């Protein structure tokens, strides 16, 4: 229901730009009103409105003014409510049940009245409540209103700016990096979910630790047979009892989730529907730049990276005579490795098409990374004060999320493999964590150990990732096409059955595939180089960062790669033309093989313009809509090779067919 409401609201705003001012006002107003502001999803709505501003659908200053006025009016209502009801507001629902809603704002307000109004405007958790606190404190209007107005104007501009910038640059960026933007956006969402899961889980347990401890004690007294084992963990005389109770509850929950997933996988004996859906989505997002980034991230769970970090940390523990900690961590790693290997050997589930061998349920790489980082977090968190104890768990969550997302993206694992690996790793490290926390009594200085572990991991990952990228990309490639056609059949009619456009979600990115080539590419490359075309190596991340350099001439800036299905161009050639434009030829493997063994290619030819979107922050070679001039120029340049042309029945676009060998001359594919 909420996503549908969200989409309808954004669509209506785009269709009614002037009347949309009222909607923008109401969104900001509702976000600022006490209680209501805690449930209104204003942030994504404001981002979407900013996108419409960037796309030119709504006037930017008009939207900022409407949002600022709405926020100012909402703050005014909250201030009036606080001033009208005063301290008795705490006796009204929901404040009598959840007093922390007002307490957090009151703590900030007491520190500095004026600063609290400015700061609270940018913090969603207390934004609707601080104006009410100001009203309860009888803050004079002559002091409240100017600060509130400044805060609302700056808030409106700042919260609309991200969407505004994104919308202003979307058309240009999407033309060459649409899939990359989607992959990075999906990765950001996964990291945000991991952060939220760790932080809010920790906060919930921190707030309910004493209640869990009391319930555990009551249960152990009511069940004397099993209670004596539970009582050993939650002895109220030990300061570690609350932490042990939390670990025990987490262990029960994780173990239940793990066995539920294991049962589901075993009963089906095949990938789950969600596995197939996620796999297909990731395959559709594959692109060269994201491939290299994800391959680098997928390597951070390799033994070359984990062993040095864990090994040096274990040596430090032994050197400091922390034998108990070292033994528990070593047991966690050793038994986790054996258990995961055993499960992978026993559980037979078909692997993703891109993972040809060596991987199964659960993911050993993800499991061992979870255990390595997770038990280290259990080890050092007890030495940290208060809420600082959450940060080792945050590091673990972020690292495992990066690794899991990257391996799913590459097709190394199904989603259930990664989730199963995380659950198994968490369950096992909780078992060892309970055993360690139950027996350990001595504290130790954790900062040197933390520096040793995390710095070693970072250095090992930075050294190993660039060296592992090509190997991982070679390991996880889609299976080759199985369709075989004769060269004569392709030349006569079968060319019509090959794709006529790129398979992209946006119509602007479904470029026509107006060129088909049979035979090896070196003769074609040499032929075009004699006519002024130049081969460009596939752009990497160094070339992408070079786009930020406005001193580099446009002719020296790289054309970003594009993918057909999951593959980058095998050949990209470019040639400058009059007016500062570039003509570009892109060729990919065709989804079919020639019976003779010769390769078959499909491609497109385009005219590119150099633009500097996002207020000139970076430069891009951006395809133009009409590439017919480039196609005609290429046809002229191919004189001397055997060619034919006809209109493709699916796209209605003329397709140029090229042979780089004489018919029937044979030869091996290159």
Which structural traits does this protein have?
alpha+beta; two-stranded parallel sheet; eight-stranded mixed β-sheet; disordered C terminus; 8% strand; 670 residues; 23 helices; single chain
Q: Sheet bearing the most strands, described?
A: 8 strands, mixed
Tell me the number of strands: 12
Radius of gyration: 30 Å
Low-confidence stretches: 225-242, 666-670
Tell me the span between the first and last alpha carbons.
54 Å
Number of helices: 23
Describe this structure as you would to a colleague.
The structure is a single chain. The radius of gyration is 30 Å and the shape is globular. It has helices at 2-15, 20-32, 42-54, 60-85, 100-111, 113-120, 130-136, 141-222, 224-233, 241-268, 273-285, 288-298, 303-319, 323-346, 364-381, 390-410, 415-439, 446-475, 487-492, 522-529, 541-546, 613-616, 628-637; strands at residues 484-485, 515-518, 534-535, 563-564, 567-568, 571-576, 582-589, 593-594, 600-611, 620-623, 642-647, 654-659. α4 runs parallel beside α7 and α8 crosses α16 (390-410). Strands 2, 3, 6, 7, 9, 10, 11 and 12 form an eight-stranded mixed β-sheet that branches. The chain has a two-stranded parallel ribbon with strand order 1-8. It has a two-stranded antiparallel ribbon with strand order 4-5. It is built from 23 helices and twelve strands. The chain is α+β, with helices and mostly antiparallel strands and 670 residues long.
Short structural summary:
A hairpin with a 5-residue loop joins strand 6 and strand 7. The chain has helices spanning 2-15, 20-32, 42-54, 60-85, 100-111, 113-120, 130-136, 141-222, 224-233, 241-268, 273-285, 288-298, 303-319, 323-346, 364-381, 390-410, 415-439, 446-475, 487-492, 522-529, 541-546, 613-616, 628-637; strands at residues 484-485, 515-518, 534-535, 563-564, 567-568, 571-576, 582-589, 593-594, 600-611, 620-623, 642-647, 654-659.
